[in-house]
Specification:
The complex is a heterodimer of chains A (1185) and B (585). Chain A is mainly beta and 1185 residues long. Helices cover 12% and strands 45% of the residues of chain A. In chain A, strand 56, helix 17 and strand 57 form a beta-alpha-beta unit. Classes of the chains: A mainly beta (1185), B mainly alpha (585). Strand 39 of chain A pairs antiparallel with strand 1 of chain B.
């Protein structure tokens, strides 16, 4: 049977595999159930014990064979014990122990999985006896290095690696003082106890926190670089789909901005300390010591995150650390303790905001007509058509001659509501199993995330698995792995296009009626007005990413203090995509006619593409740490190499044999096969030396030497050194007077260099790419130079100086950290604009620019408690600015006299700067806005003598009144010209049009030399974050706010805020409600609005008002409530009855509030959105067994 | 334990992979190896030809810079959208000027690369290298010609150059012509360059001597060196080029290598290799659906003579036609049996409905398109003519009718559907695929696009002869073209009698206008003849519906429009370039 079964399943592997994937959700559920069972049985475990005259040791051994308990006792106790005789069957542990020690002077005490045995207090002795104990933290994890002080003798000892200690002390009168940095000290009167289990409570201050730094950890007190830490509690229980997006507002100098709300693509951009370069600004992400992608990590697996902000702390990642380094440490297994935890939530999704359009089709048609008539052209929609809609609107449920309701035949569709009106639920489930024995510890986790998105058919789901395992295979050798993977399915729907269809349609298209999609119903309407719903439903296929990341490591303890660690890492990402159309037809419900027939199979194209990338990383590190008296020193020496390779392949065929058969084999005509491959390599050696004297003076030196395949052999290697020093001033004697107030005060300084190789993979080589041509109908791949090379390309280098002060005061209640930094990046790798005269080949990448940045960061935290009420509040602030120090030279502009004696205006802006409406120019911020300015006049129009006043034009640059028009005409008559339309009539400049300022004074208003630098940029200069946490008994409350200011957006998008109307295109409500309109034939027309903000409507194009001017320039500052949680934890005594160690339920909201003056969508995303961000209302549960 | 150590050692050792940092691209060739084999030489030259295809648009990349698309600025064509050049709002920063500049200079860079590196690096045979260098010179000459046609005097670069070297000032128009002539003369003097390739020759599509003569002759027209031009055109004839007998069939794939074609952009049915006529000139009910971006102008239709060579007159067909206002004229174009609401709508638009014939309206207007120069029907879909399209976006072939107003498509006897339903425009038949088999995909049609064809040569030749006063020789050339078209020959009756040089000049120009629609010729002709303002900006002109009503008006910005501006982007990056007069940056 068995054999038979194996054979069968082999025969159907592909089917089985598919089946398994389909059932993944179910499997996750089964795993939960299975674990619950395992767990329940272990608790229900009964003990059978039969012994005659046994020693305690034998009894203990027998119990441990059956149940997983640790015994803790003093050997003397064992010796004093009478032989034990017992016979119990299937009894609870307590009953068994009661029986064993029935007539003995021994007490037992069960704490978790540890059983403490101690002598019954009876005799008072004056002797010193042996005291045995264990010190654990608040999570019952043993604490090593805890100081145990005998109060009477003053002797101190420390706990060992397992948290155990032993000392001789008078057990009856003895008092011990237990101290550990970062924990509340405890004084314990022994009162005759032989054994102790001491639970330490953490001090509210976090000095003891161990901070993960590059290639190691440091105690927070010893950190002298600028390192921001984010702990797991801030990112757990969030419904954000990606780790990156959950970091907003949590750390000073770490700016997190979402770029789209599209499920599966909604990772955020992270900017550490603003922008200091002209190319990529993504920080390096290191997961458990290996370079990786942040959003591959399940947020629930994260133990801690460190952000290395200054060069000194990032220099150990030298070449890649210029934009900061984000170190992610995942949770590891814990000794001696098995726990199963489940967290789950479901959220209701709403789009944060959606663009609004005119939904009343009659109004829409009139507005479009207005736009065309404004240009002297004929109206598009006839009165007859408009009448039809008006009549139908009076009786929406009436039936047409074809028996179709009026509201369908003559629709007024609100496309925003059609696309975003559905309420959908997001789900997030995570299950983790954590445990281990003395030698082996493991963490196993599985997560399932399903985000249906706010737009139909755009969902993404994700299954993530992780195994973290380590085993001590020999006394000197530990091996293990961190392995994680995920499968992510995202919608194949072309979301950007579907979203753009919001503007490329009209209310006169009915979405879908009785399963048939609507077509533009008005005869005059553009046949191409889209039906976004039909589009969304017309795309079939699948899009799946499979990723596996595995690191295998071995740690060797060579001699005391010297360890060698080697890691081999492989990760593989595999994206499969298939797209094919799903045929549909469109129907004109007004005429009851088929308007677009369904595609026939012969017209359908199916496309498959594969995209695979892998990374191989080898990392070897030798570490040495030692303490000699007051000297602490450590050193590491390492070697790292990385090889990355990516290739892709796609093929498409036209003409299917059946609409449902969409493999390539069902296609007939090959229409495209493409594929390419790319790779890079990186090799590095690095070292670090750190030294501390008396925990007071700290110093560190880092050197890294990197070679990158992206540069030519001669220039490929770069050296990145860093130095830092710290002074714990609070430890000095002269501070002792205020020591009671100041717990810790440190001054930190660092200087270092980091690099960046952010050029294309082969940019140092000039290359000829393939281009198509044919001769005599035979295709050939021609070759043409497609990229200009630069064999002098080398590392971009950032030099950063950091000065910081951090402190903890008021017994840990208040902590603060201030950092000042200045970075200077030179040799910036950049592809400058080149003259079009050089052709179409991509310009060479060059080490062309220098940029400085500087900033201040401040974090402040306060925590306190009043009885059962605990609260903490922490805020952060960062200011950052940058300046292009060197690019292609200074801007020179002004009037010159040319050879013919004419006064002409000349500017070298195109030579020395790069860009169009944002530019890179020496002396300015990176990508500072460069815009035309709206003309601003006094409105006086004419001088006293009746001549035209050049400064007397309209206040806000819009020609609104006949006086404005007269002024304009007189100006033109006087020889001034107004660009770009350059003429006064309804097709050029007319009532309701904007004119531009003549900034250079050449008499031409609004030519290219009238653009100016606006002293504004699109990235925030100031970032704020605020977290508030409160807890009262079982209740907890938290919220996270973030804010950004000091940034502006240029937002001028057709059909969203421009005054352009066209057939088949929507009319934005912003403009419809507030644009200039004046009916010259009827001054009393109620529609007249000569104070309208937006320019008059125009059909199809509008050269005059479309200039990139400050009319469309907005302050984009915003304040956001990122997350709000209210939770309740069931009291433990109640929970324990159900074998639950923790149960918390909570309500949460994500992205709940946004305050901004920006009139577009979510200002966090930027001016152009292709998918709104989400707002979520969640209900969740955390459960631990 | 030994095993573990072994693993560690391996891990440490494999880190010493030697070539980790020496990577090179997988799909491109580095400049050091380029041109160094015979094959790379072939591919490099194909790369120069590819420059002819730059900025060829498709449905995901609308790019209105192709040669034939320039017809929207001409007398004979119009576009679907308002064009800043025609509405008087264009500035030197318009992408039109930048893109054409960049495409042409890219071609020059590639040609320069070949001309410089083939002799130095290529191991190909001397004969082949000589031929390739001549081809590159032709292409370089062609790109400079295209630049000089519109910008009139551009910087000359004859070697590959880098961005920092792109600082030359403009050469004069004359200097550029001299350079173009020098390159073409080199081609003509190259013994390895064949006169022409036979149909089906593996090298078909490469430059020939005949092409060089034809282009050089055209340059001489610009320079008004009439005798030199005529001599070169004679050489084209000597090379064996002739007219193809069937004007309409000439623009089908089967005849793309006929002896009339002298030099054409090679197309085939594959993404990246084909033409996009179907997309931009076709319309929704043509196979694979087009967008009718580019359309013939009513002026062109009116210009087609009657078959007997007499001028077409609306009044002759419909007495009193021209006395009506343009809006009133719509009545003649309406379909039979209008519904009451259609009638009311037409009346509202201004059609003079009392002239409507419910049963004979179509018949009456069809007469206007009958008995005309056959090229009218070959090039243009006229009202109540039929077209073999595809039914309702499917691949079911259907005969469709050009009717107004549009009602619906149908498998049989349906209407042609446009993307501009509220207006009634003429459509190009030329280059638009008929039926459902001429094409695989609207983004890559198979038909080669002629840059130089023999009819062009004949009419340029006629022009050169006429300007020299050789009227009868000139008439002979024109008549070759007219004979093939099927319209009465010049001097065959009163209407066609040439009355003098001036008359013949106008007749030749009109012949070019009606022969080459949608081939990217007329706009440049009108510029060369300095007739563009008079023709395109005649009073009341604009984007017109069939009966002459403007959808939007044209507005002439000034005589500076005859010369394109140096793109403002280029002036800003290279201040040595001086702007053409009249243009504001």
């Amino acid at each position: 049977m068995y054999k038979n079964f194996i054979e069968t399943s082999f025969g159907t592997i592909p089917y089985c595999f598919r089946h398994i994937l389909l059932k993944m959700k179910l499997t996750a559920l089964l795993v939960v159930l299975a674990m619950l069972q395992v767990h329940a049985s272990s608790f229900a475990q009964k003990i059978t014990l039969k012994a005659k005259n046994a020693t305690l040791k034998e009894i203990v051994a027998k119990i441990r064979q059956q149940a997983d308990y640790d015994f803790l006792y003093n050997n003397r106790v064992a010796q004093e014990l009478q032989p034990i005789t017992v016979d119990m069957r299937n009894k609870d542990i307590r009953e068994v122990l009661d029986a064993c020690f029935a007539n003995q002077s021994l007490d037992y005490n069960i704490r978790g999985k540890t059983i403490l045995l101690q002598r019954k207090v009876s005799v008072i002795s004056q002797q010193e006896e042996l005291l045995t104990g264990i010190v654990v933290d608040e999570r019952d994890k043993p604490l090593a290095g805890v100081t145990i002080k005998n109060k009477s003798s003053g002797e101190t000892i420390t706990t060992d690696d397992e948290g155990h200690f032993q000392c001789k002390i008078n057990l009856h009168t003895g008092v011990i003082l237990i101290q550990f940095l970062g924990y509340e000290s405890q004084e314990i009167n022994l009162n005759g106890k032989h054994t102790l289990q001491v639970s330490m409570k953490p001090l509210i201050n976090d000095l003891n926190e161990v901070v993960v730094v590059g290639y190691g950890t440091q105690k927070k007190e010893n950190v002298i670089g600028s390192v921001a830490t984010i702990n797991a509690s801030s990112i757990e229980n969030r419904s954000t789909s990606t780790l990156s997006s959950s970091l907003a507002g949590l750390a000073a100098g770490v700016n997190v901005q979402a770029s789209t709300g599209k499920p599966g693509a909604d990772g955020s951009n992270i900017l550490v300390r603003g922008t200091g370069t002209l190319n990529g600004t993504s920080p390096l992400v290191v997961i458990d010591g290996i370079v990786g992608s942040m959003d591959a990590v399940n947020p629930n697996d994260v133990e801690a995150i460190s952000v290395l902000k200054d060069a000194a702390s990032a220099a150990i990642y030298g070449s890649l650390g210029s934009n900061g380094v984000i170190l992610i440490t995942t949770k590891k297994g814990t000794k001696g303790k098995t726990s199963v935890s489940y967290t789950g939530m479901t959220s209701l999704l709403r789009p944060n905001n959606v663009p609004e359009f005119v939904t009343d089709y009659t109004r829409h048609m009139r507005l479009v007509n207005e736009g065309f008539m404004n240009l002297g052209q004929a109206a598009i929609y006839t009165d007859a058509t408009i009448d039809k809609w008006e009549t139908a609107a009076k009786d929406p449920n009436g039936l047409t001659e074809h028996g179709i309701p009026n509201y369908v035949a003559y629709p007024n569709t609100n496309w925003g509501k059609e696309l975003f009106g559905e309420r959908k639920l997001l789900q997030n489930h995570n299950l983790a199993l954590n445990g281990g024995t003395e030698n082996t510890q493991y963490l196993f986790s599985v997560g399932y995330f399903d985000n249906p998105g706010t737009m139909p058919l755009t969902s993404a789901d994700n299954i993530r698995l992780r195994v973290n395992l380590q085993a001590k295979v020999a006394k000197f050798l530990t091996v293990g792995t961190q392995t994680f993977g995920d499968i992510q399915n995202t919608s194949v729907v072309d979301v950007a296009t579907a979203y753009s269809y919001l503007t490329q349609t009209v209310p006169g298209v009915y979405p879908s009626y009785r399963g048939v999609y609507g077509f533009p119903a008005a005869a005059e309407e553009s046949a191409t007005a889209n039906n976004a719903l039909a589009f969304l439903n017309s795309q079939g296929g699948k899009n799946q990413v499979n990723r596996i990341n595995s690191t295998i490591f071995a740690k060797l303890d060579l001699v005391k203090g010297l360890t060698f660690e080697t890691k081999v890492h492989y990760d593989n990402s595999y994206t499969e995509n298939n797209t094919h159309p799903i045929p549909y037809e469109k129907w004109n419900f007004a005429t009851n006619q088929l308007s677009t027939a369904a595609q026939t199979p012969a017209q359908m194209t199916t496309r498959y593409s594969l995209y695979k990338s892998y990374n191989v990383i080898i990392d070897n590190v030798l570490r040495y740490n030692n303490t000699l008296g007051k000297h602490d020193f450590g050193a590491i020496l390492g070697y790292n190499e990385q090889y990355y390779n990516q290739y892709n392949f796609d093929a498409a065929k036209l003409g299917l044999i059946h609409p449902d058969l969409t493999t390539l084999n069902s296609g007939t005509t090959m229409t495209g096969i493409n594929g390419d491959e790319t790779d890079y390599g990186l090799r590095s050696v690095f070292g670090r030396l750190n030294y501390a004297f008396n925990q007071r003076y700290l110093g560190e030196v880092v050197i890294r030497y990197d070679g990158s395949s992206r540069f030519g052999a001669a220039r490929r290697w770069g050296l990145f050194p860093a130095f830092s020093a710290g002074w714990r001033i609070s430890e000095e004697r002269f501070m002792s007077s205020i020591k009671s107030f100041i717990d810790d005060l440190r001054i930190r300084a660092s200087w270092g260099r980091t690099g960046n190789n952010a050029s294309g993979n082969y940019d140092h080589l000039p290359t000829y790419g393939t281009v198509p041509y044919s001769f005599n109908n035979q295709a050939v791949r021609g070759l043409a130079q497609t990229k200009l090379g630069n064999d002098l390309l080398h590392w971009e280098t950032t030099t950063t100086t950091n000065l910081g002060i951090s402190g903890i005061t008021w017994k840990g209640k208040l902590n603060f950290e201030v950092d000042f930094y200045r970075g200077y990046t030179d040799g910036i790798l950049f592809v400058p604009n080149i003259p079009a005269t050089t052709g179409t080949a991509a310009a060479a990448t060059m080490n062309i620019a220098e940029v400085s940045k500087k900033g201040v960061e401040l974090s402040l935290g306060y925590q306190g408690k009043a009885n059962d009420f605990q609260y903490s509040i922490s805020g952060n602030f960062a200011y950052n600015t940058n300046r292009v120090e060197k690019y292609k030279g200074r801007l020179q502009e002004g009037f010159i006299t040319d050879a013919m004696g004419n006064r002409v205006y000349q500017s070298n802006i195109g030579q020395v700067s790069n860009g169009s409406n944002t530019r890179i120019l020496e002396g300015h911020a990176i990508n500072e806005f460069y815009l035309y300015n709206i003309y601003q006049g006094t409105g006086d129009h004419f001088l006293a003598d009746g001549s035209v006043n050049i400064n007397g034009g309209p206040h806000d640059g819009m020609i609104r009144t006949p006086e404005d028009m007269e002024w304009l005409k007189q100006m033109v008559a006087a020889g001034y010209s107004f660009q770009p339309a350059d003429g006064i009539d309804p097709t050029k400049i007319w009532y309701g049009d904007l004119i531009y300022a003549d900034l250079n004074g050449d008499g031409i208003y609004g030519n290219v030399y009238d653009q100016q630098f606006m002293n504004k940029r699109a990235t925030p200069a100031y970032n704020f974050g605020l977290s508030v946490n409160m807890a009262y008994k079982g209740f907890d409350f938290s919220m996270i706010w973030s804010a950004a200011t000091g940034m502006s957006y240029y937002w001028n998008t057709i059909y969203l805020n421009q005054s352009i109307v066209a057939q088949g295109k929507s009319v934005p409500l912003l403009v419809a409600d507030n644009h200039y309109y004046y009916n010259e034939t009827n001054p009393n027309d109620p529609a007249n609005n000569i104070q309208g903000h937006y320019p008059r409507l125009k059909g199809v194009t509008d050269a005059q008002n479309g200039r990139t001017s400050n009319f469309y320039f907005y302050d984009a500052s915003f304040v956001k409530l990122r997350n709000l949680q209210i939770g309740y934890t069931i009291p433990s005594n109640f929970a324990n009855r159900f074998s639950i160690s923790k149960l918390r339920v909570y309500l949460a909201g994500e992205n709940l509030l946004t305050f901004t003056k920006f009139p577009g969508l979510d200002p966090e995303v930027g001016p152009d959105s292709n998918y709104p961000t989400m707002r979520q209302y969640s209900l969740g549960i955390n459960l631990t067994f | 334990m030994k095993k573990i150590f072994a693993i560690l050692m391996i891990s440490a050792l494999c880190s010493c992979k030697k070539d980790l940092l020496d990577t090179s691209p997988y799909s491109s060739v580095s400049s050091t190896t380029m041109w160094t084999t015979d094959n790379l030489t072939d591919l490099g030259v194909a790369g120069v030809y590819n420059a002819l295809r730059l900025k060829m648009g498709h449905s995901g990349l609308v790019s209105p810079y192709e040669l034939y698309q320039m017809d929207r600025f001409s007398f004979t064509g119009q576009g679907r959208w308002d064009e800043p050049l025609l509405t008087g709002t264009i500035t030197a920063g318009d992408p039109l000027f930048l893109n054409i500049w960049q495409m042409m200079y890219e071609g020059i860079q590639r040609a320069n690369d070949g001309i410089k590196n083939i002799p130095q690096k290529s191991p190909s045979s001397t004969e082949k290298k000589a031929r390739y260098i001549a081809e590159c010179k032709f292409l370089r000459a062609y790109f400079y010609f295209r630049l000089n046609q519109v910008y009139k005097g551009v910087p000359i670069y004859l070697e590959p150059f880098t961005a920092t070297e792109a600082v030359k000032p403009r050469n004069t128009e004359e200097e550029v012509w001299d350079q173009v002539l020098a390159d073409l003369s080199d081609c003509i003097n190259e013994p390895q360059l064949p006169e022409r390739y036979a149909t089906g020759d593996g090298n078909y599509g490469h430059v020939t001597k005949a092409a060089a003569y034809a282009l050089r002759g055209k340059i001489y027209l610009y320079k008004t060196d009439w005798a030199l031009a005529a001599a070169d055109f004679q050489k084209v004839k000597d090379a064996g080029h002739t007219l193809f007998a069937d004007y309409k069939a000439l623009f089908k794939e089967a005849n793309e290598q006929s002896s009339e074609m002298i030099f054409s952009i090679q197309n085939r049915s594959e993404f990246g290799y084909g033409n996009n006529f179907q997309l931009f000139c076709g319309w929704p009910s043509a196979y694979t659906r087009g967008w009718n971006y580019y359309m013939p102008s009513p002026h062109l239709v009116d210009l087609y003579e009657n078959r007997d060579g007499s001028k077409f007159s609306w009044d002759a067909v419909i007495p009193g036609y021209t006395k009506l206002s343009v809006n009133e004229r719509e009545v003649f174009f309406l379909r039979d049996n209008l519904t009451e609401s259609e009638k009311a709508a037409a009346a509202l638009r201004g059609a003079k409905m009392e002239l409507y014939l419910p049963q004979g309206n179509e018949e009456r207007i069809k007469a206007a398109y009958d008995n005309r120069d056959p090229r009218l029907q070959a090039n243009i879909v006229t009202p109540y003519a039929t077209f073999r399209g595809a039914y309702n976006f499917t691949n079911v072939e259907s005969i469709q009718h050009m009717r107004w107003p549009f009602r619906a498509q149908a498998p049989i006897d349906g209407d042609i559907q446009s993307d501009t339903q509220i207006n009634f425009f003429y459509f190009y038949r030329k280059f638009v695929a008929e039926g459902v088999t001429e094409l695989v995909d609207r983004n890559f049609g198979p038909i080669d696009f002629p840059i130089l064809r023999y009819a062009d040569v004949l009419l340029m030749w006629a022009e050169a002869l006429n300007e020299q006063g050789l009227l009868s020789e000139a008439v002979e050339k024109v008549n070759e073209v007219r004979a093939r078209a099927g319209v009465a020959l010049l001097n065959s009756n009163t209407a066609t009698t040439v009355t003098g040089q001036e008359d013949l000049r106008e007749r030749i120009r009109n012949e070019r206008r009606v022969e080459f629609p949608n081939e990217g010729i007329n706009y440049f002709d009108e510029l060369r003849w300095a007739t563009w303002k008079e023709k395109v900006f005649q009073v009341g002109n604009g984007r017109k519906q069939i009966w002459g009503a403007n959808v939007s008006d044209y507005s002439y910005k000034g005589d500076h429009l005859y010369t394109w501006p140096i793109p403002s982007n280029e002036i800003q990056m290279n201040p040595n370039l001086k702007q053409n007069p009249g243009w504001i940056d």
